[in-house]
Amino acid sequence: MTPAHPSSALDPARVEAVQRARGRWRREVAELGGPNTLLWHRTSLTGTFDLNLAHPGGVAKLLSGRPTLLSELVREHVAFLDASRRIGAIRDKTSELRREHGMETGFLAIGLATWSLQRVPVPPRAPVLLRSCRIRPVDAAHSDHVLELHEDVVFNPVLEHYLRSEMHLDLDPVGLAGLSAQHHGFDPRMTYQALEQLCVELTGFAIGPQMVLGTFPWAKLPLVTSFTGDPHSLAGHDVAAALAGVDVSFPGDGPDPSRADDPAQELSALDADRAQRLVVDEASRGADLVLDTPAGTGATQTVANIVVAALSEGRSVLVCSEERAALESLQRRLAHVGLGDLCLHLAEDPASMRAGLASVRHALEHLPREVPAEPGPDPLPARADALVVLRREHDVLHHRHEPWGLSLAGVEDDLAALAALETPPGSRVRLSAGELQALGEDELSAVSDALVEAAAAGAWTRGRGDDPWYGARLSTADEAARAQEIVARMVSGASGPPASRPSGSAGRPGCRCRSPSSSGPTGSRSWPARARRSTSSRRRSTTPPSTTWWPPPRPATR
Known about the structure:
By secondary structure, this protein is an alpha+beta fold. It has 21 helices and eleven strands. Helix 12 (about 275-285) crosses helix 13 (about 300-310) and helix 13 crosses helix 14 (about 325-335).
């Protein structure tokens, strides 16, 4: 990240643009996960499940932290079907938010606090305690679900923020949550009593004993509050200003190709091609990068190499992603190269926080006992040989062959583009290098024009078996001129298609003619037009389209 500029040197227009963008970003973040259910909880037809109507034995088992079947909570058949539908919807929503935004939202809300607000007709309903809940089906048919609560009990952070900022109350959220841990098990009544005493001056404050399972966006509050305050600090960063629409010029001379090709300066621990090494080199120099990385192009591998480069230079790096699966994949790659102990997976939910502290404790406990690994053979010679091979392969793929000015990589791209068409062209005709070299630009254009005109006249409207031109052999200039004359008459409308198949010389091999209607699934009318566009605009294909005829006026003999 580029360093922040001093607030006094910022352009007022830049600050104003960031201020407008920050309001938009704040609204977008506030919409993540749906409404603010941590302060204004409302019962939903599908998104909530009320445990107050569940069987007391099943509720006690669930609150003790043991895996509990939904059928143990709801034992009547009709009510179980409705509960199963609700639990399935909650599970799908929590999985979607975890996958797309990395947010943990599946919680059991224990106790709902309400109070009166002036000029607000509907009072707030804020959960008091939260316990993370895991839901998983017992089988593929989802005939039943297993519910399991995490042992951590946390005080609602949004309720704490509201009571501190609006009511100016001094709260101890850890102490309030700890009151629910009694010698006989989980019991939230002591927490309710302590909170009611703190909020005694709050009009109409009361806590109901409801227990509701649903989606509660835990991380929304810190995200929203991060877009408040003085905008100058955010406007001082070039990347934030650029995202806000400000025209920012980023310094830098671009990547250094020589460093990317030098194995002695390579900082990657995982395999990387030249383009990926250039990205790693730019990131290690502190450049700001925006990369377009379609699926399968090695984005996670490149990020892992950037992390390795930062760690090898004694720096730290923070990797953020909306998808938690991407972070887990990155952590697995780093653990594969022996850097797992240097990575700390951070998340906002209590379970992830506890796991992060446990990993730090484990790393600290085992760090002094580690024996330094014996250095192996010097990998630089092998890396240098591998880079030589890669450079040679790169040169072969991108070398332009004359006289066509085409490369293998370019031809592959063109063939892939043709194959992606709704009706890709097809032909079994193959021409030798000498025949291709004999086709100049004018002749190739003339051939394309003739084929387009012939197709428009209906030259190839029949199948292969009825095509009189199929299998014709033209071995002399006279035969080619005669065939050209026939086609010219057919195009001009002077006569119909030839009644008999043109004869060919059997003495020596000639150019076997096959109409496009017999060479593939492509329609006879659309093939020459596509071929003309492909050859006239780019002339990138090494096999000229529909070269089943001849390059006028020269006969196409082999």
